[in-house]
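Q: How do we represent a protein-ligand complex in a form that can be generated token by token?
A: Start from the inputs.
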Amino acid sequence: MKTLDQIAEEIRAHKGCGFEPCETCTNEVPGEGNSNADIMLIGEGPGKNEDLQGRPFVGAAGKLLDELIESIGLKREDVFIGNVVKARPPGNRDPKPEEIAHSWPWLRNQVAAIKPQVIVLLGRHAMDLFLPDLRISAVHGQAKRYRGQVYYPVYHPAAALYNGSLRQTLLDDFAKLPKVLEKAKALPETEVAIEPVGPAAELLTKKSPAKEPVAAASAQTAKSTTEPQQKPLF
Ligand code: URA
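Then emit the structure tokens for the protein with uracil bound:
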């Protein structure tokens, strides 16, 4: 299995794929933090400041994320912070499904290297990649267990920069995170399957026909587990 450092090196050295974000970015942004983190936070993708510095969440949204992490007695170095896509989509546009699919193997390898107890999904782009058919407005602050992994969807910190009332919502949701972590640690161990869902997952399936039977099987799992995972885990 690749180490976090090896994955980061691979991402930074990456070029020539033809995808617009990778071709136009100043720096790829692999993510950073504790390789033994209990909590991994996944955002959407680098913005302007992140692109310039090659580090995740260092702009205005990052300042709020730091406050949220500190509000529960942790520091940035205690957690791992990453993104769905590793290069800035030009003009901060939404990442396209094919760009999300392109970045997926790195993100999957990062999750596999860290084995976090809880993955905090920052906003809908991260949520839609890991949890099918949910709305962030309905499920923020509710822990979900899906294919063995505990997820905790919350609003993206940038949303609170535009809508001030979401700041308190984020603080309230983060306040529940230590309890979620405690309960996640107490769950009986089961096998964890980190597989993408949504449009990016469909592209990945199309691109690698050899994997089709597995993908088809997991699509069925996704369907059959949609119902229970609508309910809060704890
Ligand atoms: N927004 C994100 O989703 N990720 C970052 O790294 C910065 C802002």
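The mean pLDDT is 91. The longest strand covers residues 149-154.
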